Amino acid sequence: MKGLLIISGLGIVAMLAEIFKFKKALLPIVLLGIVAAYATNFIEWNSPQSIVYFDNMIAFDKLGIAFSGIIIATAFLWFILANDYFEDTNNSVDHFALVLFALVGALMLTAYKNMTTLFLGIEIMSIPMYVLAASKKNNIKSNEAGFKYLIMGSFASGFLLFGIALVYGACGSFDLFMIKSYITINSATLPSFFYVGVLMILIAMCFKVSAAPFHFWAPDVYEGSPTLITALMSTVVKTAAFAAFLRLFMISFSGVSELWTMVLAVVVALSLIVANLSAAMQSNVKRMLAFSSISHAAFMLMVILANVRSNLSVSALIYYSLAYSIGSIAAFGVVYNVALKANEDITSFNGLSKRHPLLAFCMTVSMLSLAGIPVTSGFFAKYFVFTAMIGTHYKWLLIIAVLTSAVGVYYYLKVVIAMYFKGNESDNEKLIVEKSQAIVIVLSTIITLVIGIVPNLVADIFSF
Amino acid sequence: MINGISINYYLLLSTVLFIIGAVGVMARRNSIIIFMCVELMLNAVNLLLVSFSTLHNDATGQVFVFFIMAVAAAEVAVGLAILSMIYRNLKTIDTDILSNLKH
Predict the structure, then answer these.
(1) Is the ipTM of this complex over 0.85?
(2) What residues form DSSP beta bridges with A112?
(3) Would you give the DSSP letter of residue A112?
(4) Domain residues of chain A, as ranges?
C-alpha cells in the first residue's frame, strides 16, 4: 500500500516539475521513488499479516504484493528503457505523470477487495493509457490507436459495470468476500440475472486482457501506439489485468465455477488458435508481438481455469507474468531501437547479427523465451501452466496449446532467421544503441536466462 | 418493489437502454454519436445501480454511481481531446476513415 502511495506522490511531483523547473532531475527522482516503492513492497511481503485500507476496499495480501512486485520491477526497467521517449516530446513531464498514474491503477488492481476499487483501478490504469496510445499527435496511426483503445475500453467498461450492477442486485454488496459468502449460502435461489452479470463481467475482463473473440482491438492498438507505450501495455497493463481477473474469479465467483469455466475454456481455445495463426501471417514485428501477446493471454487464462481446483497454479501465473513481462521488455526494446532508423517490418531485422551482434543475441533469447524453448524462462512458464492443467478435465485444451505453440515457434524463429541468415553485405551500417537502453535489454536477457535455468529461484518464493 | 413498481421493470428499462447504447457503439459511424452511446450504456448502469440500491436499502450502490459519473466525465474529456486531434489531422470524424491499421 505504501508503494501505491509513493507512486501516486511521484505522479504529482512529476506534474510540478514543469513549474519548478527540475525537468532534468525528474527521471532520477522517479527511479529513486520506484526503488523506494519496491522496498516498502518488500517490507510488506515480510510482515506477518496484511493490513486493510479504506474500509476493506484495498488489502495487500501475499498475492497482491507478489504481483505489485512484478509490476514495479517491470516499470523500473521500462523507465530506464524509455528515457529518450521522454526527451523527444515537448511536454515530457505530463508523460511521466500519465505513466505513473497508470501504474497506480495497476497496483490498485493487484490488491482490490471491492468491486468499486476494481472499477476505479481499471479506469485509473486505462485512461492514461488511452492518452499515451495517442501521444504522437501528428501521426494518424497513433491517433487511430488511441481512439480505438478508448472506444473499446469504455465499451468493455460498460459491460463490466452492467455486470457489477447485476451482481450487486443479486447479492446486495460490492465486497468480494460478501459476494462469495452470499453465493455459497444462497446457491439454490440466485436470480437468473446474477448469472448474466457474471458472464458480462467475464466478457469485460476478456476484453481487457485481449482474449479472442474480444481481441480485435489489440493488434491495431499495439501497432499504432508508440513502441515503448506498446511495451508498457503488454507488460504492466497485462499483468495487472490478470491479477484482477484471477482475484475476482478465484474469490467471488468460485462458487459458480461451472457457469464460467466452460465459457473460459472456449475463449482460451479460440485465443490460442486465432492468435497463433494470425501471428504467423504478419510481416510487421510489432503486430506479430501483439498477436503473440494474445496467445500468451490464453496461456495465463488457462492458469485461472486450472485454479478452480488447485492453489498451486497461483504461483504458475505469477511466474508466467514475470517471464512474459521481462521477455517482452527486451523484445520491445530491440524493436524500438531497430525501428528508429527503419520501420517495424521484419525486413528491417535483416542482418542485425552483423549490425549489432549483442542486440541480435538478446532478441534471439527473448524470442526463444516467448516461444517457450528450454533454458529460457518461457519454457518453465509454459511447463508450470501445463502441470497445473493436467489435474483438470480440460486436457483437450492442452493438446490445442501444444499444437499452436508449434506454430508459435515458426513465427518467432522467423525473426531470428532474418537477423542471422538474411540481408546482404552492403548495408552493414552499425546500429547505435544508447548505453542505458542496452543495459536494460541485456539485464532483461540475463534475468530471462537465469530464471530459466534455475526456475525454483522464483517459483519457491511465490509458492505460498 | 420500489413505490409499488416491481424491480423487474427497472431491470427491463435499463437493459433496453444498455442494448440501445451497445448497438449504437457498434453500428454508428459518427464518433460523437459513438461517445453518446457509450454514455447511454453507463447511464443505464447508473439507473440499475440506483434502483437496486433502493431495493436493498443500501447506500453503497448510490456511492458507486458517483464514481461512475466521475470516471465517465474523465473518459469523455480524453475522448473529445483525441477526437479534436483526429479532426485536426484528417478534417473528419467519420470512423470509416480510420482504417490505417488494417492489413
Answers:
(1) yes
(2) A58
(3) B
(4) 2-459
DSSP type of residue A432: P
Residue recorded with cell 457474471: A198
The crossing angle, in degrees rounded to 10, of helices A257-280 and A192-208 is 30
CATH of domain B7-98: 1.10.287.3510
Of A115, A131, A137, the CB nearest to B78: A131
Q: Using CB atoms, which residue from B61, B101, B103 is nearest to A145?
A: B101
Distance from CA of B3 to the nearest CA of A (A): 17
Q: Before A213, cis peptide (omega within 30)? A: yes
Q: Determine phi and psi for B93, rounding to 5 degrees.
A: -125, 20
Question: pLDDT band for position B101 (50/70/90)?
Answer: low
Q: How many CB atoms lie within 10 A of CB A94?
A: 19
Of A137, A140, A151, the CB nearest to B34: A151
pLDDT digits 0-9 by tens, A346-359: 888 888 888 888 98
What's the mean per-residue pLDDT of chain A?
88
Sequence letter at residue A105: G
Instruction: Please name which of B62, B85, B66 lies closest in space to residue A150, comparing C-alpha atoms.
Output: B85
A175 touches A168 (CB < 8 A): no
- Give the whole-angstrom CA distance, residue A132 versus residue A228: 10
Helix (H) or strand (E) holding A58: strand A58-59
User: Could you report the per-residue pLDDT of A397-425, keeping only the tens digit for each?
Assistant: 889 999 999 999 999 999 899 888 887 66
Best residue in B13, B25, B26, B71 to probe A by mutation, most A CBs within 10 Å? Answer: B71
pTM for this model (two decimals):
0.93
Helices (H), A190-312: 192-208, 217-224, 227-232, 238-251, 257-280, 285-307
Q: Looking at residue A252, what DSSP letter applies? A: G
| Paired strand residues for A345 | A284
Q: Quick check: helix, strand or coil at residue B2?
A: strand
Q: In the prediction, which pLDDT does A203 show? A: 94
Cα–Cα distance measured from residue A120 to residue A117, given in angstroms and rounded to the nearest whole number = 5
- b/e map A425-455, b = 16+ CB within 10 Å: eeeeeebebeeebbebbbbbbebbbebbeeb
Residue A351 confidence (pLDDT): 82
**Cα–Cα distance list, A443 to A34, A102, A326, A337, A366 (Å):** 18, 24, 9, 16, 12
**How many helices (H) and strands (E) would you count in chain A?**
21, 2
